[in-house]
């Protein structure tokens, strides 16, 4: 992958994250801007022949910050950038952007960070979800554990 392609993907992720972070709707309605961003992300992922990786977290969460560091490990980041388009969702104090959480089966119920992987060719079927809180102790995890989770998808 060349640097321009990598820059484009990272820029896309940052733009999506900033938009979702700025939309602090707590409503569980179809008018929630997060749902619109999710729909657009599915289209973008489909066009790029990638799965959509939705990451729920918050900036106050130590395990979320540790998870972000793990995702930047070379081996993991190369895998993620190759296979997934990332959509980060800020859940605040579990009071923001909850419509998408609800739509995707409440993956944050057992802690954050949590991830949901969606195949944009069949967006109604969840490929994987960490509903069991698998990454909620990310600060105690190794890069290899995170890599093993993502490589299977």
Folded structure, characterized:
Helices cover 46% and strands 15% of the residues. It has helices spanning 3-22, 33-47, 62-71, 74-83, 98-103, 143-151; strands at residues 51-57, 84-90, 114-118, 126-129. With 153 residues, it is an alpha+beta fold. It contains six helices and four strands; from the N terminus they run ααβααβαββα. The protein has a four-stranded mixed sheet with strand order 2-1-3-4. Residues 14-29 have low confidence and may be disordered.
Explain briefly what this protein structure is.
The chain is an alpha+beta fold.
Give the number of helices: 6
Strand order of the largest sheet: 2-1-3-4
Morphology: globular
Q: Overall pLDDT, averaged?
A: 86
Keyphrases for this structure?
153 residues; alpha+beta; 46% helix; 15% strand; globular
């Amino acid at each position: 992958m060349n640097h321009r392609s990598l820059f484009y993907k990272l820029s896309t992720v940052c733009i999506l994250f900033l938009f979702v972070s700025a939309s602090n709707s707590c409503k569980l309605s179809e008018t929630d801007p997060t749902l619109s961003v999710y729909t657009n992300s599915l289209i973008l992922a489909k066009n790029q022949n990638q799965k959509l990786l939705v990451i729920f977290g918050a900036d106050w969460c130590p395990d979320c910050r540790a998870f972000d560091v793990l995702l930047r490990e070379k081996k993991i980041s190369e895998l993620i950038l190759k296979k997934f388009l990332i959509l980060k969702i800020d859940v605040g104090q579990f009071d923001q952007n909850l419509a998408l959480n609800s739509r995707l089966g409440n993956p944050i119920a057992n802690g954050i960070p949590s991830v949901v992987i969606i195949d944009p060719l069949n967006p109604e079927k969840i490929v994987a979800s960490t509903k069991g809180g698998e990454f909620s102790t990310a600060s105690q995890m190794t890069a290899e554990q995170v890599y093993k989770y993502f490589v299977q998808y």
